[in-house]
Amino acid sequence: MNADLDEMFAALSRDGDAVPVSPAEGARRRGNRRSRNRSVAAALAVLLVIAGVSAAAWQRDHHRQPVLPATPDQPDTLIRGLNTLGDPLNLGADRIWRYPSSLEGRLFALSVPATASGSERRNRTVAIDERTGEILWSTPDELGNTDAPIPIPGSVLLPEETEKPTMRILDPATGAERWKLRFEPKDTLILHPDVLVRAAVTDGTTEGLDMRTGARLWVSPTSDRPTSTGGIRDRSGTPTLGTGFYRDSDGYMFQVLTSGNVLIRDVRTGDVVHRFENIQQRESELATVHDGTAIWPAGHQIWAAALGGGEPRALLELGADQRLEDLFGCGPGRICVAQASLTSPLQTRIDAVDIASAQTVWHATPSNGFISTSRGGRTLISGAAGPVLLDANGEEIFAAKDGVDWVDDGNLLLFERTPDGQEVALAAVSAVDGVRTPLRKLPGDSEVPDFGYDCGWSAAVLACAKGADLHRYAFTR
């Protein structure tokens, strides 16, 4: 996978729950988080509130982020500082910034009127050169009803909240509209740099549309209608789903059919590359692909088979008193299986299993945590007790009490609220040895969730919104 595609997923993941632009948009953005672990999530949310951490902050990385390009074992790739890039960008006191993201050398952010109501919206998507701060383009007034931009390699997508939702596809260099798709509120869209897949709720049609032109590339039969559709990231080995209308994919998608069968498709061609039969609904939504292998639960076992018709084989049997919570890739050739106790859902266990040999490489029992992401073979586990970073052998590298998020596979950012609640102390954490490097304090606001910050970043640049100002910083290594 190339760097641009990795950055696409990081940008999609950090879509900012800070202050929703509208109730519908806020619901969609929160819905795009993974939502199947509801019973455990509810218990964790209660503990987080008690601990003084917002549930929105804890949910920030449910929608997993893949590896950004880096070689973390080389010292010159580690983040050592943060330099200010020019003056803050300001479009006037009557406008505020929201949801910054960065991709392919450009920052994208939503500028909204400071006093606008949900029924009278004059939003504006702005594209900015991430290094110079030059405004490259902004959307016209007639697109004031659009929501936060979704940048992907080669395109920027703008969802528009109308009676019949519209997705507009723009040229990221100029902001010119290429084409648009009107769809039903309950339709599902799968986003890939080359293809936009639409699963229509009205007639059961699933079609792949060229991301640049809108031309139909493929369409699936409708004899066995899908009841659920989600994207799959092969590299990180995770499905992407939720109650929002769009998901992302780096090559595959899954569909649960009315018959109960589950299909895994290549999003570029629509071809079925694997099929499961008679899997329960909840289990089917945990089916994934990692390193060319289909992996799925059935009953109390985890199964694997090479894509294209490989013979199924058992990888792991769950504990008798355990409930499967998640499947995700945790390094090349490894799948991690997260389980929770049926009687005490905050008692969790993660097993890292070698796919080829079906041997458990390591296991961990994190305290009150089950939300996990993995990059470069290292696994970040988040929960009420705070995030913990494990190495490729399952040994603890770093632990914290506040928010931690990935920059690339060698670096993380640690956001810590200052005692007065008005600022956020930012530090870089090495994923190699857990060494923490203080960077600076960021402008914060006790009224804003997610520890008082609304930031987006690439492997090179950090952008943070604070009211009418958009601050830009460059990582030094």
Which descriptors apply to this entry?
39 strands; 10% helix
Brief summary of the model shown:
This protein has 477 residues and is mainly beta.
Instruction: Return the average pLDDT rounded to an integer.
Output: 79
Distance N terminus to C terminus?
24 Å
Total strand segments: 39
Q: Please identify, by name, the CATH architecture.
A: 7 Propeller
CATH hierarchy, class: Mainly Beta
Counting helices, strands and paired strands, the structural category is mainly beta
- Indicate the CATH topology: Methylamine Dehydrogenase, Chain H
Largest sheet properties: 5 strands, antiparallel
Which radius of gyration do the C-alpha atoms yield?
A: 21 Å
Based on Cα principal axes, name the global outline.
globular
Helix content: under 10%
Characterization of this structure:
With 477 residues, the protein is mainly β. The chain contains six helices and 39 strands. Strands 1, 2, 37, 38 and 39 form a five-stranded antiparallel beta sheet that branches. Strands 14-13-12-11-17 form a five-stranded mixed beta sheet, with no helix packed on it. The longest helix is centred in the first third of the chain and has 14 residues, at 38-51. The radius of gyration is 21 Å and the shape is globular. The two termini are 24 Å apart. Mean pLDDT is 79; it is low at 1-73 and 446-452.
Secondary structure elements and pairings:
Blueprint: H1 3-13, H2 23-31, H3 38-51, H4 55-59, E1 81-84, E2 89-90, E3 95-103, E4 106-113, E5 124-129, E6 135-138, E7 150-152, E8 155-160, E9 166-170, E10 177-182, E11 188-191, E12 195-199, E13 206-210, E14 216-219, E15 226-233, E16 238-240, E17 246-248, E18 252-257, E19 262-266, E20 272-276, H5 281-284, E21 288-290, E22 293-298, E23 301-306, E24 313-317, E25 322-329, E26 334-341, E27 348-354, E28 359-364, E29 369-375, E30 378-383, E31 388-390, E32 396-399, E33 403-408, E34 411-417, E35 423-430, E36 436-443, H6 449-452, E37 455-457, E38 461-466, E39 469-476
Parallel strand pairs: 11-17
Antiparallel strand pairs: 1-39, 2-39, 3-4, 4-5, 5-6, 7-8, 8-9, 9-10, 11-12, 12-13, 13-14, 15-16, 15-18, 18-19, 19-20, 21-22, 22-23, 23-24, 25-26, 26-27, 27-28, 29-30, 30-31, 31-32, 33-34, 34-35, 35-36, 37-38, 38-39
